[in-house]
TrEMBL record:
Domain F-box: 10-50
Source organism (scientific name): Dichanthelium oligosanthes
Acidic residues bias spans: 178-188
InterPro entries per UniProt: F-box-like_dom_sf, F-box_dom
Residue segments, region Disordered: 160-188
Protein name: F-box domain-containing protein
Domain of life, source organism: Eukaryota
Amino acid sequence: METDTKLSALTDDVLAAILCRVPAPSLAASRSVCKAWRGLIDDPRLLLLHVLPCSVRGLFINYLDHDMPHLFARPTSSVPRRLSFAIVCTKLFYSGYRVTDHCNGLVLHSRDDVNGYARYVCNPATRWWARLPPCSGYGRTFLVFDPALSPHYEVLWTERDPENPKDNRRKKKLGQDAEAETPEEEEGEYNSWRLTEWSPSRWTWHGFSSRTSQWEERVFVRECEAAGTLGYLLLHQMRYIPEPRWRYAAYWQGALYVHCQGEYVSR
């Protein structure tokens, strides 16, 4: 009774913190102790924590003058020089690809991330892969996966940049369908655009979930002040290069932190 009383005084969070340090075989055996213990282990998916790698085995590097990324890693007997991820990609019927994001063991890659071509999610360790439904348009994609919370992954897509009226007008002129505007009207439209707050109070993204296998529109509501105006952010941005070597994101403690144009971070 004394032992039961001491255990009952511990919160579920404390017990989970203790159990996550138990080796996987013993943790699996602990599920049979009682229904409460099974729920304590299964609800936070403690066993899935043992699936995650405990160390970095290598780095994928995208090169501007190479069609495929390179793996920088220590050669071992268990990992061949040709990573299984590259073998997976040779089955996707194109020769070139780029790693655009990764999260907790899953890798997001595509033939052309900027122009919205085919996108794939794969697990290099198991050689599993899946092709995402098309999501057209200029934009960037980010991968979110936390096996400790769910076996499903999500991919978030957002437009690359706010539409510049001068660029938009130039595209229309190339298509010869632009209405004639006076220089004063063009300058007024551009100045109005430059003074627009960014990020917007309601920011529309698109999200793909492996649970539903489809893209859905998602609207994020800004909870703080804007990072600045579009004109200000344009003055404080890195030179754009159409390759996935800039402005990445990091998934940490249930939130995605995105390095946005204008050199600010959005959560």
